[in-house]
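We treat protein structure as text, and this decision shapes the records that our systems exchange. The tokens are whole numbers drawn from a learned vocabulary of local backbone shapes. One such record is reproduced below, unchanged from the form in which we store it:
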Amino acid sequence: MTWKVQLCELNYSLEESRAVERVISSKWLTMGDKVKKFENKFSQFLGEKSLCSAVSSCTAALHISILGLNLKSKDEIIMPALTFVANANVIKLSGCKPVLADIESLQNPNLSIETIKKVVTKKTKAVYIVHFAGFPCDVKPIAEFCKRNNIYLIEDVAHAPGASINGRNCGTFGDVSCFSFYSNKNLSTGEGGMIVTRDKKLHECFQKIRSHGMTAATLDRHKGRAYSYDVISPGLNYRFDEIKGALGLVQLSKLKRANNKRKKLSERYLKNLKNSPLMLPFSQKREKFESSHHIMPVLLPKNTNKEEVINFLKNFGIQTSMHYPSFHNFSFYKKFFSKNKSPVSSEFIQRELTLPLYPDLKFKEVDYVCDSIKKYFDDKNF
């Protein structure tokens, strides 16, 4: 289907094409100098002495974090009830136990220290926090709590590259942080991710895990720096490649400008929908909390038929989505989780609709989306 207003769109131009062409011309595609340069630039971007390892996906980063922190079978890891399934998948596949914590409120659908404390036990060894939609979780009290109780804090920053609290980047508060560079993210290399820590030994461990536990890379042998290698620990192939590295460098240079465009578009949505029947999460501004505005979530009125709204907007050529389907409805996970234990998340998921948002979206397209939503509710005499 050809959309009049699609949900998201790559923020790509000739810069990305030329960067890829240069890599192909170099005749070296696997992990090499471009990847290293991207890691270094990303470290500088984050600040706080961050040490970065580029990997094949954010899911890979999440998995490596569990392996590198040496979390054991049946250790409990707290995670949001409102998040993508990757968080639960890597926990289950690692033999650990995922424990869902509810979001703070419909207005602020992130974890809070209070919702985390409700599910902490003696078996809790780590907490995953997610900066949902690009809006920073109030991470400082969570980080302090985790430190006092010898619990690892892992930040899932898939939605939030460039988001910050009091000028400090999200992804620099936890023991480990994981970024996504998937096709629909603010910084995109198609697939890919980054695992970040400030601990040098942990950083070295992550780098070994991502490449079979080997002491030398293929590039080292190619350039004559090594002729063989040792394997000092088990590892996997979670490597990044040179094409992604080149794309990442261009995308990182565009990120601040692109996030500013997203912010202006989000403000336009909020202005247009202020007096509509919709609830607008994160519309209450928090001083010193800066969002990356990854997605534009809205909440439909209670008992609204979400599928009907989606199809209504589809007929106007508007693509929408939802973030995220509930764990309780997945065939595998419904036997492990009860929606009654995370009622705020359950209501949010039932009512949430994601509207189009990307840097090249036009104000007139935002207005068109908002007018179409208003028409739906006007037709219902709402």
User: Anything to note?
Assistant: The radius of gyration is 21 Å. The domain at 14-251 is CATH 3.40.640.10 (Aspartate Aminotransferase; domain 2).
